[in-house]
Amino acid sequence: MGGPPLRKEKRRNPRKTDWDKYREELHRRLRGGAEGDLETAQGIEELVQALTEAILKSFEAACPLRPVGVTSRPKWPTEIKELQLRARRAQRRAFRTKTEEDWGVKVEAQRQFKRALRKFERDTWRKYCGEMEGMTPTARLVKVLKQDNRVQMGMLKKRDGSFTGTPEEALDLLLQDHFPAEEGGVVEEQVERALADEASIEEAKMYTDGSRMGNKTGMGFLIQVPGEEDVEVSVPLGETPTVYQAEVSILMMNSREADNEREMKNSGDDDPVEKMLTKAGCLNQHYAIQECMAEYKDWRKCQKEVAAFRDCINSSQEKGENVRYVQKNRD
Question: Which cellular component terms (GO) are annotated to the entry (predicted)?
Answer without folding.
Answer: mitochondrial intermembrane space
